[in-house]
Amino acid sequence: MTETESSRADAASRDTIAAAGTVYWLTGLAGVGKTSLAGRLVDRLRRNGGRPVLLDGDDLRRHIFRDVGYGRAERLRLARHYAALAELISRQGFDVVCATISLFPEIWERNRRLPRYVEVLLRAPESVLATRRPELYGDPRDSTRGPSVGRELEAPEPPDPDLVLWNDGASDLDALAEAVWQCSRRRTPHPGARAPGPHAVAFGSKAETLERLEHRVVGARVLPQERFDVREWRRDRDAVLSRLERRGWFRAPLIVRSSAIGEDRASGSLAGHFPSRAGCLGRIQVQAAIDELAAAMPDPEGRDQIFAQPDLGSVRASGVVFTRDPAGGAHYRIVSEDRDGGPTGAITSGHARSHRTHYVHRMAPACEDAELAALLEVADELTQLLGDDNLDFEYARGEDGVLYLLQVRPLCVQEPSGPSLAYGEECAALENAQRRALELSRPHPRLLGSRALFGRMPDWNPAEILGARPRPLALSLYRELVTDSIWAYQRHNYGYRNLRSFPLVVSFTGLPYVDVRVSFESFVPAAIPEEWARQLVDLYLDRLLAAPEAHDKVEFRVVVSCLALDQDMRLAALRRDGFSAVACALLTEALRALTNRVASGPDSLLAKDLAKVRVLEQRQSEYGPALAALAPLDQVYWLLEDTKRYGTLPFAGIARAAFMARQMLDSLVTTGLWSPADRQCFLASLDTVSARMQRDLVELDRNQFLERYGHLRPGTYDLLSPRYDEAPDHYFDWGTARTKVLHAAPFVPSPQQNSAVDRRLAELGLELDAADLLVFLRTALEGREHAKFVFTRNLSDALRTLTGWGATLGHGRDDMAHCDIATLRGAYASSVDVAALLADSIAAGRAAHRRTRVLSLPTLLVDPAEILSFALPSSEPNFVTLGTTEGPVAQVTDERPSLAGAILMIPNADPGFDWIFSAGIAGFATMYGGHNSHMAIRANELGVPAVIGAGETNYAAWCRAAVLAIDCQNRTVVARR
Known about the structure:
Helix content: 40-55%
Strand order of the largest sheet: 20-24-23-22-21-25-26
Largest sheet: 7 strands, mixed
Shape: globular
Structural class: alpha/beta
Number of strands: 26
Strand content: 5-15%
Distance between the termini: 56 Å
């Protein structure tokens, strides 16, 4: 074949592919509703102007393939006929909807070679299948029917379908058909597709890839370029500059960019490693920029490339798109964007003023945001042109609205250890999460609130305590010890509405969320009539919707849960939001009674709960040694029972009092009775566990110190997080001479301040004077930290016992971190084979955590649809102290010497991170955590500037910086590369 004939053949092949219709392959067990869905899909395609052809397996058997049997070989032969027929019809330009069981790997592999192919797996509960097809799901001994797929015959599911749909009888078939059609519109190349043909674009260097895409990509524009390597520049720079001059490029600004050999590889991108110089105007500036880049290029032979392009200057928006999630490989298109204008590298450099990250799963419906939709279309186009579904590209949207493609490179995906999660499993997990969120959002006869919200940080903030993706043991322990029942029991005891039986934390794909509707009702005093209570819950929900950045500050920005000294301001806000004067008066009276019960006198609820914690300390010393004689599982059972009864139950009350204390402390400032500096001095004077630990680190020897504090661990509920006494040299530097830590002097308000506070307390009808209030503030805030310190000893000992027990059965720490504590507790009162039970629990936990570790969901879930498509907003962080600091960015995993003088990044504000304050850090920032979190109190106490609860977007950007400058008084963070 001549070159011309070959070109004609390639062109004909491309024309055939372009004209081909789509094959929609609807597969699943008998009775899942393939035929019904196929009919609705055909209607949907016709409404869109298509020419669909329906191939239904039952009809084809009935009219054409009547003599084919039902064994595996006959079914496979029949499936091949269906696939060939679908391909033949689709190549004539018709869409083909094929409804068939055909659960054979051979068929899926064959179909993936089709030019346009959408594979849809339908599922339904077995009870529904039996109802729809009783003749197939009846007695398996019935000889009147042939072998059935899924019972007598093996029924493997497609490993990576484009869409997984659940059809349980209540499903809207039109909605399912719409989902299939939308999937076909945005479908990227199938992960199992064959390699691209000769017409595809091949990766080259950064500059070469852009040049190859310049006249191929339709959805975006690629700027022209002049490319040369360092050898050429060194040999004859005048010739290079003359080429630029002949193009007339010295009359407008240029950008000079690197294109090194090691850049933009699948194994690593070296993004930002080499400089770019924008705004170069004229021959002299361009030559200087090229000289600078040439000197920075690493290849000694000068093979690295440099290229120049017209400079876009300021743009309307810029950002980066990943076509997969680099942290795990899930099928999200991730768009990190700055729509505030400015330089094109704002996102990659960490200098974006308005950084917003969008996650759009491949199975999500079409995006309504036109600019975002255009980016997703470009992402799909690039994956098709390059034949690669793992891409990372940078873009800018000019002032003229044109989308410019700045860079395209392979995406380096960090696959998690163990089996990867197939696309079909992703879809099924997300659909189940969406279905459950929808169910939990419905009106409930025993629950107030007209809508539901779910958040990671409100109230008992699981993200702060557990992290974003806890393993099953940590999540099940937290639910057992706090959020399933303890939280509601104690909140009701303190005078709020009874929410017992409502779990506070729900799990979507293993990610813990607070049911905000449940939480907000639990903040309403029990004395409020239901009509006004309902109005109050809806008001709180509306407030959070209007200010989602307050999701980690709901007690300070959203709800009114105690009688603080700025009650007049809070009531005025309620009146503006439509709460009546009568309702406000009743709420004030209820909060007055509730606050007095908690804070006033020796018989206050706070005093009683502190006494219960002292009981737990006594039981730990008296009964601790005796527990060692019990079986390991029995030890764990009783350690946790004591933890609940004498630990987390009173702690839930003390924590409630501490939140009230913090609101009252802040209200002293908002009313002008104290200054912000007064508040800072008071917090610095607190004598918390953390303060005592810093003193004891100097005054006690190593063994004494670890005897007292060794049970602490940075992840309180995480078995994989070593205790202090398990890795003491990692947490503390025992060899360096330590300076004695002096405790701050007690804060003493002036007589004038006390008199003014006394008057205000009397006006509010609170049974406290200024001195009593100061005692309450100190007792509640110190008591919360002490109670946590005490009950975590039991919890930590239980985790250590589980570790040892697992080892005797051949299970390592990582295995045990995947078991479920509820399953093991159930074995206490039974004679089950606990070894087999544990193995089953670990296996189930590992399977579940495979989904948890790669799937992503929004921080605040407002609508179940956001499970498939959402944005991570920039949070409003909590700035602690009034200080300023600056230092190199460090991670908690870094070596201790590198932490001195650093700004330390830690994921959450768990009390087990107290060890960082002995490392000489200059400041720190956390991804999760609230205004009243342990680490916020600790930072205030030591005067360490900190940013608590920065949010996922800010935290990720700051981690990429080389240096952070924190100004707490002005509430700013500046990232420097």
